[in-house]
Amino acid sequence: MSSTKTIGIIGGGQLGQMMAISAIYMGHKVITLDPTADCPSSRVSEVIVAPYDDVDALRQLSDRCDVLTYEFENVDADGLDAVIKDGQLPQGTDLLRISQNRIFEKDFLSNKAQVRVAPYKVVTSSLDLEDIDLSKKYVLKTATGGYDGHGQKVITSADDLEEANALANSAECVLEEFVNFDLEISVIVSGNGKDVTVFPVQENIHRNNILSKTIVPARISDSLAEKAKAMAVKIAEQLNLSGTLCVEMFATADDIIVNEIAPRPHNSGHYSIEACDFSQFDTHILGVLGAPLPAIHLHTSAVMLNVLGQHVEVAERYVTENPSAHLHMYGKLEAKHNRKMGHVTLFSDEPDNVVEFGKGIDF
């Protein structure tokens, strides 16, 4: 990378902000497109204020930048296709489309990448739910939209079918058999279009379908950890990945099942800012620029805790009482309940002793 580049980031939330910080440290300039003038990225970059599907604004961003990237999946792929110059969006829009639609995603994972996923079927209406075996447990998810538990319905008995049928009649869905897993894990992998580099396996604990705590390294056997990393690399190679990708998985007693992919840095990889020699944001920027990628080294075991709107005061108090903890606040102006406001990373090889904010006591 001989020269300074101007990098355009679509999305100015915390992920865009942390991408921008990495890019700026490397000497690059950043322009962000976001509908909100005072978004988190506005603290570290210029912002073009416009909706994500505003083709004129996307064209302005494209005209002013050498390279484009995105911080989340809900970007208008057609709008990007209309404005990007050849090679300007190294991640491509195919990856966006795969990760925007669970039907495409399941097909890609099971048939193209050939990794194990939970048994599933495509549901186009409530008629597709008529013959399901209610001795099993399922989760019905809308094919598009939905995150942090929205747009899904768990089916454990006939009592759940009324709501499930309504969901199935409102949108295309995927019906997955519920996996009996020991742990939820994820693997961050970054590519530069040719080579890939992979981060340690992360163990994730969710509360109300929102990530609460990440433990690194995950408490699974070395053989399962290697299997998880190999699956993430296989997926990345099948995509000719540029930038960072998160592969969310379930670990059972003796196997790994892939749940979904996110085509960007991920909440569960935030620990890497302090705990690894390169963060998931550093490797994302290097990757989309086509630069050589480093092998990732974990300095020490770490725990990351999410700071939601209701946890802000206790998190600020926590770091005054634990000065070795690293507090990251994203600069969001309004602290709403269950809104991700920041995170704390702590080096610890006793993760059970690091208590999640709000667990057991509501401050």
Textual characterization of the structure:
The chain is an alpha+beta fold. It folds into 3 domains: 6-89, Rossmann fold (3-Layer(aba) Sandwich); 119-177, ATP-grasp fold, A domain (Dna Ligase, domain 1), CATH 3.30.1490; 183-353, D-amino Acid Aminotransferase, Chain A, domain 1 (2-Layer Sandwich). The chain is built from 10 helices and 17 strands. It has helices spanning 14-25, 55-64, 77-83, 92-100, 102-112, 161-170, 222-238, 272-275, 280-288, 312-321, and strands at 6-10, 29-34, 46-49, 67-70, 120-123, 138-142, 152-155, 173-177, 183-192, 196-198, 202-207, 210-216, 242-251, 256-262, 302-308, 326-329, 340-347. A hairpin with a 2-residue loop joins strand 11 and strand 12 (210-216). The mean pLDDT is 95.
